[in-house]
Amino acid sequence: MLKIYNTLGNYKEEFVPIDSSNIRIYACGPTVYNYAHIGNARMAVANDLLVRLLRTIYPKVTYVSNITDIDDKIIETSAKKNIPFKDLTRKFEKIYNEDMLSLGVLPPDIQPRATDHINEMIELTKKLIKNNHAYIKEDHVLFHVPSFKKYGCLSKRNREEQILGSRVEIAPFKKDPADFVLWKPSSNNVPGWQSPWGFGRPGWHLECSAMSEKTLGLPFDIHSGGMDLTFPHHENEIAQSCGAYNKTNDPKSFAKYWFHNGFVIVEGEKMSKSIGNIKLVHDLINNFSGEVLRLTLLSSHYRQPLNWTVDSINQSKNMLTRLYRELKDLDDIDINNSDYKVPDNIMAALCDDLNTPKALAELNLLANKISSSSASEKIIIKGEILAIGKLIGILQDNPKKWLGYGHSEGLDNDTIEGLIKNRNEARRNKNFTLADSIRDELKSKGIEIEDTKNGTIWRSEI
RNA sequence: GGCUCGGUGGCAGAGUGGUUAUGUAGGGGCCUGCAAAGCCUUGCACAGCGGUUCGAUUCCGCUCCGAGCCUCCA
Question: For residues A192 and A183, what is the distance between their CA atoms, to the nearest angstrom?
Answer without folding.
Answer: 10
